[in-house]
Amino acid sequence: MGTMATARDVRLETVEYRADQVFGQIGRFLAQHHLSPDPLHYAFAHRVISHPDGVLAKSVAALTEGGIRLTARDIEKLGGQVAATPVSGGPPTADPVEGLVAQTQMQVEGFTDMMHAIREETQGFGRDLAASANAMRTTDNNGDIVRLTEVMLDRVQSAEARLAAATHEAEELRLKLEEARSNARSDPLTNLPNRRAFEENFGQHVAGGKSVCLAVCDVDRFKRVNDRFGHSVGDRVLKAIAETLLKNCADHMVARYGGEEFTVLFVGVSLDEAYATLERARATVAQKRYRLRESDEPLGAVTFSAGVTQARPYEGLGAVFGRADKLLYAAKDGGRNQIHRN
User: Fold this and answer.
1) Which of 260, 279, 294, 297 is catalytic?
2) In which region does residue 183 sit, left (phi positive, over 0), alpha (psi from -120 to 50) or beta (all else)?
3) Contact assessment for residue 237 and residue 222, using Cβ atoms and an 8 Å cutoff
4) What residues pair up with 300 in beta bridges, in sequence order?
5) Strand, helix or coil at 298?
6) Is 13 a catalytic residue?
7) In 3D, which of 223, 221, 301, 215 has the Cα closest to residue 262?
8) Using one digit for the tens of pLDDT, what is the confidence trace for 313-324?
9) Considering the chain, what is the average pLDDT of its residues?
10) pLDDT for 145-185, tens place per residue?
11) Which segments within the chain are labelled E, that is strand?
12) How far apart are CA 306 and CA 279, in angstroms?
């Protein structure tokens, strides 16, 4: 009986050890890719860790070769789901815009309280002046009126100073709020609108019934640039391509959607016109020859592939983007440095 119990204990310990091992590997996976410990992320990580020789694990290994972190889009493409609020190694960071909104609201409330206080003081002045008027009817001594007037003026000046300071502070907060809102919709590297701004803009135009074409552009073999020359050079390449897209698509919205991926929103033009505009940008990028600023070493040609499609009336972003994305990958499979349309 003791031998059977010992064997069972050994099996339990082995199972517990393996569970702890898997749990630890999942934790390291989430930390490595800056994913929150959300059940959706945990489930994806568990699929990767529990089947190290499976197709999913191999796909993840290929995407993350060289220390590259998985993006939300990578996870979605691999069949996983992304939590609504990912975090990076800690509790969720407060949204700076929301913080400024709350601060501004508090300031407005304080401003209102001050105005109430000023009103009460003014009402007090009125009562004092009324009493003084009554006193004037019964006495020839005007000294009290003079003193009361001086006190009233001091109070008014003090209230005006407080009002001016509060107004200045509220104006500064308003400007900070506008700047924060702008930054929340801007990519810090390229200064282009970011994914949030692009999606909002798309929704507004589609809701307004406007004709919209959407292009998804992806820099070809960008990982090689980062691996060979470093991320600082890769950042300069992204900025150069962003400038070219912005110049050639000046009348349309160009955004950095994430990583080496850009999107262009063409409004009020046909699919053929959108394609022609984007083709000019592609040709311009392909003709450039980059060199390293530090050593003048040739970087060679950098190109991008793209897919562009026209949105159907009131079609959602997911469907339109998915169609453009498939066209993009068809362009990649077709040899890169080309644009497919539909």
Assistant:
1) 260
2) alpha
3) yes
4) 290
5) strand
6) no
7) 215
8) 889 999 999 999
9) 80
10) 667 766 766 776 777 677 677 767 777 777 776 777 677 78
11) 212-219, 253-258, 261-267, 290-291, 298-300, 304-310, 339-341
12) 9
